[in-house]
Amino acid sequence: MKKIAWTLVLILLASALLTACGDAVPVGSKAHKVRLGIFKNVTHAAAYIALQQDYFRQAWGDDVEIEVTAFDNGSDLSIAMATGDIDIGFVGPGPATTFYLKSRNFRIVSGSNNGGAVLVARSDAGITSVKDLAGKTVAIPAKGNTNEISLRLLLAESGIGIGKKTGDAHLIVRAPADTLISFRQKEADATLVPEPWGTQLEQAGLGRILVDWQGIPPYDGHYPTVIMVASDTFIQRQRELVKGAIDANRKAIEFIRAHPDEAYELINNELKKLSGKGLDPALIRASIQRLDLTTDVSREAVEQMVKVSIDAGYIKGVKKEELDLSEFFDLSMLQELEKGSPAASASPY
Predict the structure, then answer these.
(1) pTM of the model
(2) What domains are there in the chain, each with its CATH number?
(3) What are phi and psi of 34, to 5 degrees?
(4) What is the DSSP letter of 128?
């Protein structure tokens, strides 16, 4: 009887342990699927090339299924990261940091792109400088996203507030693809958007680039617009797969530099796959030339943007003077890769 009783206890204990573990992949064993999140945007060029050139598959092996989810904005992707719906994501630092401060369950593991956003003024709006945006309506892709943060810094440099007071700039949210309609209908006087939308507005004759990417704050365009993030759980259980993703990103950046003409077509192929339609290759070329593709991530730039979000009220319960993002950065895997081969950092653009 005692033997039977002990056997039942062991069975119950084993059952409890299995229930507690759920479907989790044990530490050290290889995942069968990696859930990857990206944008339908040319600024995510490195991720596109890594998919088209099979760099992720080469790093992870044929037995790992790659599940790609394309998002329209950084908030949605960051929510998916915070709730554990994706393992690795390419996203802007603005929304990523906002949701990290709420969940604190994912990390920045690499950079992917700096810059790539431009300020475009509608051709017939009578805007010749940033100061002329006082009293004007400016479109942004989403509230709290990296482009809005840059716009707030740019307006502050010219002493322009945001709101409904006389002399303030008025903000409206419009998806970048919808800014052409907003300009045609004179709904928006200007917009700060990632490429290729700025070039597209200019080529359509609807607007002109008022501030090129190298004049967009912070740090004159040399601030992260696309970073790689990975969930804490995935880093803990699948560190080598995260490291492989970082290396795939590095290889993609190097490929774009070495084979730009071929890269434009590959980027367009992936864009068609994700959004259902591509772009004129000339438009992609113009867009890529406004990107600073790099694995570098400026912590100072990220911190400055977070402080703008705090001032704007997007981040609650955090004081600027008490801001600590040290645990948000885990660049150890990137540094391990850089020790083994030349880093994809300095950009020729």
Answers:
(1) 0.86
(2) 33-116+222-340 (3.40.190.10), 117-215 (3.40.190.10)
(3) -120, 125
(4) -
